[in-house]
Amino acid sequence: MTPAALTAWSKVSILEASRTEAGTVYAAVNRFRLDDLKPHIYRSRDYGKTWQEIVSGIADNAPVNVVREDPVRKGLLFAGTETSVYVSFDSGDHWQTLQLKLAAHFDARFDDSWRRSDRWDARAIVLDSG
């Protein structure tokens, strides 16, 4: 089921299925073609039957390109926009900037391959600005 707010020319740039919450999926949507530069991230917790926009804390002029979930920590999300990088610790209910000195355009993936020991829970977040 498509969120009602998604009209023609809305672009779903990423669908991210949750690894920690069954039935949950996140959608990053941009609407450049409609001159809409607002952020749009949607969450469904019922396998796509209903959708909720989750952008509280993201700047109004920050179109979203990507949303990614940490593969281990429940509720930890990252969003890459045209202007900044954001983090949420509560499954997208609230966002805060994580910009620091990162490039504005980015994608993220999680890499567990560099663990040094079984006793360490080490993960790398690879931020790609290219």
Provide tags for this entry.
four-stranded antiparallel β-sheet; mainly beta; 130 residues
Please tell me about this protein's structure.
- It is a single chain.
- With 130 residues, the protein is mostly beta strands.
- 25% of the residues are buried.
- The strands form three sheets. A four-stranded antiparallel beta sheet has the order 1-2-3-4, with no helix packed on it. The chain has a four-stranded antiparallel beta sheet with strand order 5-6-7-8, with no helix packed on it.
- Strand 1 (11-17) and strand 2 form a beta hairpin.
- Mean pLDDT is 82; it is low at 114-126.
- The chain has strands at 11-17, 25-31, 36-44, 52-53, 64-69, 77-81, 85-88, 96-97, 107-111, 124-128.
Output the strand order for the largest sheet. 1-2-3-4
Give the helix level as a range of percent: under 10%
Q: Which regions have little confidence, pLDDT < 50, spanning 5+ residues?
A: 114-126
Please tally the β strands and state the result.
10
How far apart lie the N and C ends?
Answer: 33 Å
Order of helices and strands: EEEEEEEEEE
Strand content: 35-45%
Largest sheet at a glance? 4 strands, antiparallel
The backbone outline, from C-alpha atoms, is globular
Q: What class, by secondary structure content? A: mainly beta
Rg over alpha carbons:
15 Å
Short description:
With 130 residues, this protein is mainly β. Helices cover 0% and strands 40% of the residues. The chain has a 4-stranded antiparallel β-sheet with strand order 1-2-3-4, with no helix packed on it. A 4-stranded antiparallel β-sheet has the order 5-6-7-8, with no helix packed on it.
